[in-house]
Known about the structure:
By secondary structure, the protein is of the alpha/beta class. It has helices at residues 14-29, 32-39, 59-81, 105-115, 143-154, 174-188, 199-211, 215-223, 240-255, 276-282, 295-308, 315-324, 329-346, 352-369, 372-383, 387-391, 397-413, 418-424, 430-446, 448-465; strands at residues 43-48, 51-56, 86-91, 164-168, 194-198, 227-231, 259-264, 286-290.
Amino acid sequence: MIALDMPQNPVKSQSEIIWDDCLKVIRENVPGMTFNTWFAPIKPVDIKNNTLTIQLPSNFFWEWIDEHFSALLNRALKSSLGDDAKLDYIIVEETEVEEPRYHNPIISIINSKETAKSDKPEFQSDLNPKYTFDNFIKGEGNQLARAASGAIADNPGGTSFNPFFIYGGVGLGKTHLIQAAGNAIINKFPNHRVKYISADRFTVNFIDSLQSNKGNEFNNFYRSMDVLIVDDIQFLIGKEKTQDLFFHIFNAFHQAGKQIILSSDKPPKDLKGMDDRLISRFHWGLNADMQPPDLETRMAILYKKANDFGMTVSSDILEYIATNITSNIRELEGCLIKLLANISLTSKEITLGLAKTIVGEISTAKKVNIGIDLITKCVCDYYKIDENKLRDKTRKQEIVLARQIAMFLSKEFTKSSLKTIGLHFGGRDHSTVIHACTSIENSLITDSNIKDAVYIIKNKIELACS
Ligand code: ADP
Ligand code: MG
């Protein structure tokens, strides 16, 4: 116990003394990296009535600590303040534009270490400077991914988010975010060698290097990087040799404490056909999913993009677009570009009528591309069952569920009538299709397994059509 009325160190405030005491307990119980990531940034701000108030940099921080370390934090607090100790917290978000940080000793150490590397050959990072944190709109669906990217950009390789693995459907901002992290790292640590590459390009380049007897050079080149960003890692599926090489590069990076950032269209466990050793490594750091944006975020994105394009669009038109294009940010952008193209060709004004026509065209184009056959295939791929089973009379539980999901998605994605959908699935009646749709709609609320399955299958379908 600390005697609160007799500060032991005149320079430190009471809250600092108590927090230092808590940190001692915490430090003994978590690995160093975890301590640096989650506890070092916390500042004690006040102590009143046995309640210690701490300051955290974001809500995400608090949620993470509360979920993973609340017991430890309580224990530390009680050992310092006694059994009736309480904790309160405030969030003070840091501004996006950082102060120059040249005086930060940690950074200058990294930089001086880096100068020794300047003899390494020049290379293209392949980062697109247009992707930044500043023009990435935060929303509920990307909160974790965005916050973690920021933490990584501040301290690449130095947090427990290594690898950082983000996954989610098409057009949700994965490429934007991982490249923004890369650009931010280069800004803060100009000597860091940051390489961005998509997994399919990585595969092609690797095969080329083998054919020209330059396999070693290829390998060494990647190992000479400080940060490696690989987009759409699912494209390594089925490419065993490339997976093997990537496995070794991954290990070398991880051992050296160098940051790896990956994106994927699905979570690691669903990367069927990926080496199990890689899948287990993908789980080592942080996995963050990106969900489709909610209405508020879609509106914010449209406002920003319209502004960037120099367009004046009234808010009722933006709201109409945001309400009707819901699944994907690339489509929101596509809609604005089409509007822009239309008015520049005809020098007409942007009207609600024009927006309705364009939104209609986008939805129809999507529905034309997606057919019941594709939906059936994606559902059966997911459940690993034969497509004929969905047309059979089988009432086995798993088949019934797959059939109901396929009917539900056919109703959602295609313009087919209930009757046509029923016919596709073994000549079933339209009332069976209605029953399937309501049953799945209910399960989406009550059953997280079904919700996850539908989410992944939908992504597969959209990916196949994009
Ligand atoms: P993904 O890689 O997930 O398929 P992208 O990163 O290519 O998606 O995003 C598609 C488009 O949408 C890009 O032009 C990107 O800049 C934009 N975008 C995605 N998310 C956001 C966001 N949160 N804020 C602003 N623009 C975004
Ligand atoms: Mg992408």
